[in-house]
Amino acid sequence: MAFRKPVSAIRMDFLIEGFIKAIGLLANGDPETFSAISATMTVSAYSLLATLAMGLPLGFCLGYFEFRFKNQVRVAVDTLLALPTVFIGLLVYALFTSRGPLGHWGLLFTLPGIAVGLTILALPIVIALCATAVEGSDRGLRVALISLGASRRQLFLSTLWEARHGVVAAALMAYGRVMTEVGIAMMVGGNIKWRTRTITTAIALETNKGEFAMGIALGLVLLGIAFGVNFAVSFLRKRH
Amino acid sequence: MKADRWRMAIAGFLSLLFAPAAPLDAQEKVLLMATTTSTEETGLLDVIAERFKKETGIDLRWTATGTGKALKLGEDCNVDVVMVHAPPAEKKFMEAGFGLNRKEFMYNDFVILGPAADPAGVRGQSVKEALAAIQTKKATFVSRGDKSGTHMMELGLWKNSGLPVPEKEAWYVQTGQGMMATIAVAAEKQGYALADRGTFIKYENILKGDPPLKIVVQGDPGLLNQYSVITVNPAKCPRANSELATRFSDWIAGPRGQAVIKDFTMMGKPLFTPNAK
């Protein structure tokens, strides 16, 4: 009776190989991997800072204040949560291409160029989640505070404080989204070695090359970074 | 104590966020090229870029995509030079004035891959006979479907064989992906596919020399895969770095560049043949 290797065993092979490779890449300080990690960190940081700077005030206002067309704005923001990344990539490409309206900025094939696209991607996430967190903060508390004679400013600050966990969750969600994005990074960045090759575009390339284990290894590296960030945040939260 | 821990954590978080990117030296001589996936995925460009940098100090950077988009990047003035393999599309590009100088510098050939069992029985036939047999038997054929040089070559093969492109046939699968991904799909579906020999050798190498797909048709003169390097015309793109582009084009078509291509082998097999005039 012929013994046949089960298909699942073959799959496991490259998963395990990928895991071992991931450790090797990090331990040996593989320069290509660290260049990709650095590119990923840079675009994530730029876009997250820009997103929070714009998204938190906007999200807060959307959740806190009552105004005309508030529901319509909510629907618009929620719709933008579904923006396809390839579409954003095309849009930003059209803006930054040499012959495009912002071509003279020279942002095509650069990390800041990718960050612009990622900011467009993350902004609706932060606005929507932040607004929800603010809306969800305890209305009863507000009533109690008003009856205790709290000023508008005190009321505002207490709502901000109440919503802090939601805001952190929004930032983490946005961070996870921009760090793992591939369509925008590929279209706007061009996957240029040593310059704009992020971990995700490197995974796409390795997969196209048929180097599945290497792709798995890079994926694990990315997961490791995500774990580091989340661990740091939970460490901070525990102090309260 | 508590403040210390906070500070430590914030510093750690920020240093993680602001891990320094590779420094961009404004002084560096940088040449930007748009090219096709086959030159990058085989690893040829890594070798070329390293040698070119060593000999000229010019930093060659590239973005790899299908030939269609690579030419479009040239048209849109986003790169200084393009390296592609679709002569008819290149001709149009030159006629429209987007290219300054076109040099043919290397070739490899296309092969038709098929499952070892060869269900359509095409092994050793000419391209024309093989495509006709695949069509008649409705054997699965996996196409790039992405306007790449390989895809354009395949469309030309159907046309030259007097057959309609089986665009909507159930047995004709268009992946819209790169060469290696397309070969992988063909292997999974036990289908036929057109591939460049370089990528196939790489594929063989990954599967330790025993791939489920084999070469079934090769050596037909219609399967020649010519690569060219085209410098972008500064008359259309004033900001294109025509000087560095020309130096690269001269180098790759010159004795040193040609030698690098000749010496680039995998499993003892050359992937490309230099043929600059």
Question: For the report, how would you describe the main beta sheet of chain B?
Answer: 10 strands, mixed
* Named CATH architecture of chain A: Orthogonal Bundle
Overall pLDDT confidence of chain B: 89
Spans of at least 5 consecutive residues with low confidence of chain A? 1-10
Structure description:
The complex is a heterodimer of chains A (240) and B (277). Chain A has 240 residues and is mostly helical. Chain A has helices at 7-27, 31-64, 70-80, 85-96, 111-136, 139-147, 152-162, 164-179, 183-189, 199-208, 212-238. Chain A has a single domain, classed as MetI-like (MetI-like fold), CATH 1.10.3720.10. Helix content of chain A is 77%, strand content 0%. The termini of chain A are far apart. Chain B is of the alpha/beta class and 277 residues long. In chain B, 42% of the residues lie in helices and 25% in strands. In chain B, strands 1, 2, 3, 4, 5, 6, 7, 8, 9 and 12 form a ten-stranded mixed sheet that branches. In chain B, strand 10 (265-266) and strand 11 (269-270) form a beta hairpin. The N and C termini of chain B lie far apart (74 Å). The chains are: A mainly alpha (240), B alpha/beta (277). The interface between A and B is large, with 36 and 39 residues.
Topology, pairings included?
The complex is a heterodimer of chains A (about 240) and B (about 280).
Chain A: H1 7-27, H2 31-64, H3 70-80, H4 85-96, H5 111-136, H6 139-147, H7 152-162, H8 164-179, H9 183-189, H10 199-208, H11 212-238
Chain B: H1 2-17, E1 29-36, H2 37-41, H3 44-56, E2 58-65, H4 67-75, E3 81-84, H5 87-95, E4 99-115, H6 127-137, E5 141-143, H7 149-160, E6 172-174, H8 179-189, E7 192-196, H9 197-206, E8 213-217, E9 224-232, H10 242-253, H11 255-262, E10 265-266, E11 269-270, E12 273-274
Parallel strand pairs in B: 1-2, 1-3, 5-6, 5-7
Antiparallel strand pairs in B: 3-9, 4-7, 4-8, 4-9, 4-12, 10-11
